[in-house]
Specification:
The chain has 395 residues and is mainly beta. Helix content is 15%, strand content 38%.
């Protein structure tokens, strides 16, 4: 029997004559037996799409992280429809012989933990248009990730304590220290570090205590606080256990000791040159002499802790009337309590044309203060002969 076509022109499955692609018979051509089947036999066993019977997605019920492979990943999803679509797409297979494949997904939320994915596929095989629809249920399995489990179990490796030097930190300082710590952890989380977390924040009568996930992060937070608020850091390691290999495991307490004086404090150095309004507690203490308006900076040896006492704060100042300008060194103002006319020093920052000035009354008398909006920060306009040292930096 002769058909006039190339050899092997019969379907090996049903025996019907077919016209096979010539490359099937050529050396090095297709050796796939399906390529020799007729269209009827080929499509009888053909599946355009290979889909799993069901898909299970593991998510953390606390933070919403998704378990992929052997680790938890933060996906930032408010719901898991998009996650279900992505997981479904990753697990669907399209036949290798299909060309010009197009597909789409129609998700249906069945209940809180079930999404039914209706997947529609179309393509071309052996020049024949095909389409197929498969439905895959996606189940959301809610559990607790390693990170949230550690937090719930009060796990931490370091403590950051914020304390003052010979004083209690202000509420604003405590709040800012917590904000700095949270920003540091957020920066680490943004890089995908799931070991970054604050287990607990405690406000005490002495300051604030924060339990931090690792020693390295505790140190980094402490350095950032000092870089902004000034002061120094000390650390005290405590042996807590041994790991499986017998190595000692330490928990480190990092104590941030804030400067004794803060911007806005008015201090008396006892040097006879009058009080100083503190403007910076970074590096060496810096400020403005209220009697003259001159810049003050503590010596290197004194650092942030010169021998001085606090006599008031900028917030204690009261607005009073500027009565008269006596000369280049003195003005008259009304005592804000007795309303008597008093002669006080005339600092360079005082505006002689002003109708009123803020003054601070203390045991040593009255002193004018600069306007709260005046830029007296030596960091912004450094004294040419001032400190050139650097503050602590984040590690």
């Amino acid at each position: 029997m002769s058909s006039g076509s190339r050899s092997g022109t019969f379907c090996p499955e049903c025996g019907d004559p077919i016209e096979r692609p010539p490359e099937v018979d050529l050396p090095g051509g297709s050796r796939d037996r399906n390529a020799a089947l007729c269209d009827g036999c080929y499509f009888d066993s053909f599946d355009l799409v290979d889909a799993p019977e069901r898909i299970e997605i593991r998510v953390c019920s606390r933070c919403g992280a998704l378990h992929r492979g052997n680790r938890w990943v933060d996906v930032g999803a408010s719901d898991y429809t998009d996650v279900a679509i992505e997981e479904t797409a990753d697990r669907l297979g399209v036949h290798v012989d299909a060309e010009d494949v197009e597909w789409g997904v129609e998700p249906e939320q069945v209940d809180q933990n079930t999404i039914r994915m209706r997947c529609l596929f179309s393509g071309r095989v052996r020049e024949t248009p095909l389409s197929e629809t498969v439905t895959v249920p996606v189940y959301i399995a809610r559990e607790t990730c390693d990170r949230c489990g550690r937090i719930a179990g009060d796990y931490y490796e370091s403590i950051v304590q914020v304390r003052g030097t010979d004083r209690v930190p202000t509420a604003a300082e405590n709040d800012r220290a917590v904000e700095i710590a949270e920003a540091y952890i957020a920066d680490r989380e943004a890089t995908g570090d799931r070991n970054a977390f604050i287990t607990e924040t405690l406000r005490t009568g002495d300051g604030v205590d924060m339990k931090i996930s690792t020693n390295q992060m505790g140190q980094g937070i402490a350095k950032r606080i000092v870089a902004e608020l000034g002061g120094s850091v000390s650390n005290a390691p405590t042996l807590v256990t041994e790991d499986g290999d017998g190595n000692e495991v330490y928990r480190v307490t990092f104590t941030v000791r804030l400067p004794p004086f803060t911007p806005g404090d008015v201090i008396d150095l006892g040097d006879g040159d009058g009080p100083v309004l503190v403007t910076s507690a970074h590096g060496n203490l810096k400020g403005t002499r209220l009697a003259t308006g001159e810049h003050y900076e503590a010596s290197f040896e004194e650092g942030i802790d010169p021998d001085a006492r606090t006599i008031g704060e900028r917030d204690d100042a009261a607005e009073t009337t500027l009565v008269a300008v006596e000369d280049a060194h003195a003005v008259q103002v009304l005592d804000p309590e007795t309303f008597e006319s008093k002669t006080i020093p005339r600092p360079s920052f005082l505006d002689p044309d002003a109708e009123s000035v803020p003054v601070l009354k203390h045991r040593g008398g009255l002193h004018a203060l600069p306007d709260p909006d005046a830029d007296l920060d030596p960091e912004a306009d450094p004294d040419p002969g001032g400190d050139t040292g650097t503050d602590g930096a984040d590690g």
